[in-house]
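Give me structure tokens for this 276-residue protein.
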Amino acid sequence: MSHTAHIPSHRKPRRSASKMALRAGVTGGVLSTLAVAGASGAANAAEPVTQTIELPTLTTDLSSQVAQSADATQQAAANYQLQAERDEAFANAAKQAKKDQAAAEKKAEAKKKAEAAAKEKAEREAAAQQAASRSSERTTLSTASAPAASTATVAAPASGSVGAVISFLRAQVGDAYVMGGTGPNSWDCSGLVQAAFKQAGVDLPRTSQEQSTFGTPVSLSNVQVGDILYWGGAGSAYHVGVYIGGGQYLDAANPSKGVVIQDLSGYPASGAVRAL
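Here you go.
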């Protein structure tokens, strides 16, 4: 026995030739792959890659279709706007037609009322003229039958002058009262009296204050048909009317009454003047 036989050997067991060849081949393949990859990476680093992206080009037909679509959209918008304008115009025309119709109906109604009022006024005037004619005849007969001495002491008014005043006043009964009104269908108190006396050729002043001092003052106990009655002081009167006999007077009273005949007992006058 050798003197080293008891010492374990530190050598590794030899590998077979086939295993060693296989490992060598694998190692070589890996190194080859790494070498190729390294070379490729170096080449890529040296020369940057340029990539060109080609955008699709619009064909002539597609461009035409886009243009036609835009035109169609614009035309549709124009049509909608035109229709809206037509609708608005139609609505405005309908409103105006309604207003015109209402105005025409109102005008026709006013005309109808005016014609009725004119007819009624004409009838009143005719009745007043007949009454004035009868009154004049009675006055003439009364004067003719009175004693001569009596007629000599009575100063009769000008022929028909008082009758003309009363006839005119009665024809205005029912007209409206309007402050400052001078006719022909609306009056204030002094405007009516002034217009009535103008029928007899008497030019009265315009206001009630002035009319209350025009002519000859008379007492209320001696008042006669055609005398001017006033309310308030002479020269400061605030209202006037005309005595028509039988304890009554005619005046443009106020906005609620208009031109009316009233009793003196209900609203006694302050004084009277005689202008005829």
